[in-house]
Amino acid sequence: MVTGSVDASVSLPRNGLVELRSSTGNIHLSLPTETSASLRAATVSGAVHVVDVDLTDEDPRAAVLKAIMGGGDGTIRLETALGDITVQGR
Q: How far is CA 42 from the centre of its chain?
């Protein structure tokens, strides 16, 4: 886990894993719109934003988002204690 913001741009391979964590800071993840993964994004104090990404089986709770992107082949886990999380398609 890091302190500060995390900004990542990835292309997730089939059955791949992306895990980004910050104790205090925002997380911004940019990925192809055709990404196939289960997504879990959680923040203790902040909000979760999804931009230009299609989600299914979306389960938004206070500051936790669980959803499926595409067929759900890979895994994406995003977590910050103090900050916002943004998942953006490109």
A: 8
- The more confident residue out of 63 and 83 is 83
Residue 34 gets the label, from left (phi > 0), alpha (psi -120 to 50) or beta, of: alpha
Question: In Å, how far are 33, 55, 76 from 58, measured between CA atoms?
Answer: 16, 6, 14
* Cα radius of gyration (the chain): 12
**Angle at alpha carbon of residue 7, lines to 62 and 33, rounded to 5°:** 75
CA distances from 14 to 42, 59, 70 (A): 23, 23, 11
Strands 17-24 and 2-3: parallel
Provide the whole-model pTM.
0.90
pLDDT tens track for 56-66: 877 666 678 99
